[in-house]
Design a protein that fits this description.
alpha+beta; elongated; four-stranded antiparallel sheet; PH-domain like; Ubiquitin-like (UB roll); about 575 residues; five-stranded mixed sheet; Acyl-CoA Binding Protein; FERM_CS
């Protein structure tokens, strides 16, 4: 039996797991790992496949079965972090955006960051004015198809590319105009470099939004950038806090706390509520890692951070990588021939259709777009270019961030319609990384139940009341009928959490009483004559307590003990 157990254990340890990692150009890298393989091993395999040396800016992201996203921790086992069943599906993404992406040492690194920011632009995370949007899209066009050629690029060729969640014909014409007249002769590397330089100046550069609510119940998006902590609420940037002003971050259940210390010893505590405790913990860990990466001078200064207190089971976390300054110093020492870059070019893309020949997605018919000019970028003209030193304040309308929505009529070539009533709502903030194909219907239903549109086309169908929406509702009803106990399970989980909190409170109370009792016994019965104990014993309050309460209690207790002992002896 022992031999069978040992052989079974060895087979379990030697088991291999298939991993598929989706890269930034939407190609896929597949490999097998052992059960005890660490995250660092998988990450090194990817970087070797990509011929990437400046790898500290990147990470591997995955989504658990509860649709909660995570960054793979390199010091822990991959299999133990993945709660889903194999094969595992993950994504290679930029985790720490470079403070100055144009200053990166190698072209391969700049190209990967370019792909990530292009993805941010498409998914609505990177917001900008119409003029900046046209320039960024023109850079992408130049990098992917080269110089304008009348024989290859007929009238309206820019409309075949999807750069943003939504855009208008006016913006498409502006993109084509810049591509034809201003960017001729630029190589893909030059266009990508210019794209990075422009994107780095935007206020939402590096934003990876976390949906939350403030103390008033208003929706907000929290994000960590290379320059500090950002809160986007409604269509405004409510707070921007530099990293050297953030003194502490912690979380308790669904509640996230940010402690800020500004000039003149002004201290502020910002409180936000995440959708779930797991989302709050992910937010907290992202904040700890970003602050360590951008703020510290050396990785030796990194300390383990705890979120524990008396009433909640705390979490401990420590950032395990190098910091930004060390990464820059290491990059300066790279001396090798530049690796060959295999650019994606015009290849179909699942998540970023800006490089496809397919038709542009739109939420309204083409004939109607001329009248309403639905365009996320035209709705962002009011966004003001400001420095990254904005103090904590309520943003004015000049700082407005605007998301996809309905715009007004453009009155002149210089004036654009401002979409003022829409909220910042990045397209993939709810589900930023892929999951298994068979769970797409469940994702659609869960996002519709939460009031979040799944995509532009899905939102259009739901507004029009098409049969697709009715079919989705029918499937949702069947799923709810199949799972009648989901509500009771959630209620039972809440009760269990409450009971555990009460038990922790009782244990802490008993422990404190026990410590006080030990201190009292030491004060009254021991012969220790230290200055601390002597000062306490000489106080009138202690003498009164000792002679009027403690001594009678001690005599009564001793009498009871003697009586019990005599009773036991007699029996």
């Amino acid at each position: 039996m022992l031999s069978r157990w040992m052989s079974g254990s060895s087979r379990n340890l030697d088991r291999e797991y298939n991993c598929t990692v989706r890269l930034l150009d939407d190609s896929e890298y597949t490999c097998t790992i052992q059960r005890d393989a660490k995250g660092q091993y998988l990450f090194d395999l990817l970087c070797h496949h990509l011929n990437l040396l400046e790898k500290d800016y990147f990470g591997i992201r995955f989504v658990d079965p509860d649709k909660q996203r995570h960054w793979l921790e390199f010091t822990k086992s991959v299999v133990k972090q993945m709660r889903a069943q194999p094969p595992f599906t993950m994504c290679f993404r930029v985790k720490f955006y470079p403070t100055d992406p144009a200053a990166l040492k190698e072209e391969i690194t700049r190209y990967l960051v370019f792909l990530q920011i292009k993805r941010d632009l498409y998914h609505g995370r990177l917001l900008c004015k119409t003029s900046d949007a046209a320039l960024l899209a023109a850079y992408i066009l130049q990098a992917e198809i080269g110089d304008y050629d009348p024989g290859k690029h007929p009238e309206g060729y820019s409309s075949k590319f999807q750069f943003f969640p939504k855009h208008s014909e006016k913006l498409e014409r502006k993109i084509a105009e810049i591509h034809k007249s201003e960017l001729s002769g630029q190589t893909p590397a030059t266009s990508e470099l210019n794209f990075l330089r422009k994107a780095q100046t935007l206020e939402t550069y590096g934003v990876d939004p976390h949906p939350c609510k403030d103390v008033s119940g208003n929706a907000a998006f929290l994000a960590f950038t290379p320059f500090g902590f950002v809160v986007l609420q409604g269509n405004k940037r409510v707070h921007f806090i530099k990293w050297n002003e953030v003194t502490k971050m912690k979380f308790e259940g669904k509640t996230f706390y940010l402690y800020v210390s500004q000039k003149e010893e002004k201290k502020i505590v910002l409180t936000y509520f995440a959708p779930t405790p797991e989302a709050c913990k992910h937010l907290w860990k992202c904040g700890i890692e970003n602050q360590a990466f951008y703020k510290l001078e050396k990785s030796s200064q990194v300390r383990t951070v705890s979120s524990s207190n008396l009433f909640f089971k705390g979490s401990r976390f420590r950032y395990s990588g190098r910091v930004a300054k060390e990464v820059m110093e290491s990059s300066a020492k790279i001396k090798r021939e530049p690796p060959e870059i295999h650019r994606a070019g015009l290849v179909p893309s699942r998540s970023c259709p800006s490089i496809t020949h397919g038709p542009r997605l739109s939420s309204v018919p083409r004939t109607r777009r001329r009248a309403v000019h639905i365009s996320i970028m035209e709705g962002l003209e009011s966004l003001r270019d400001s420095a990254h030193s904005t103090p904590v304040r309520s943003a004015s309308h000049g700082d407005a961030f605007v998301a996809p929505g309905r715009g007004g009529r453009v009155e002149s070539s210089e004036r654009v319609a401002v979409i003022a009533d829409e909220n910042y709502s990045p397209a993939d903030s709810v589900l930023p990384t892929p999951v298994a194909e068979h769970s797409l219907e469940l994702m659609l239903l869960s996002r519709q139940a939460n009031g979040a549109p799944c995509s532009i086309e899905e939102e259009k169908e739901s507004e029009a009341g098409t049969p697709a929406a009715a079919e989705a509702e029918e499937v949702g009803g069947e799923l709810r009928a199949l799972c009648p106990g989901a509500g009771s399970l959630a209620q039972a989980e809440q009760v269990n959490k409450f009971v555990l909190s009460v038990l922790r409170l009782l244990l802490v109370t008993v422990g404190l009483l026990f410590v006080l009792l030990l201190l009292l016994i030491v004060l009254t019965e021991s012969d220790l004559d230290t200055a601390f104990f002597r000062d306490i014993r000489q106080t009138p309050e202690f003498e009164q307590f000792h002679y009027q309460y403690f001594c009678p209690l001690r005599r009564w207790f001793a009498c009871k003990v003697r009586a019990v002992v005599n009773l036991l002896i007699d029996t």
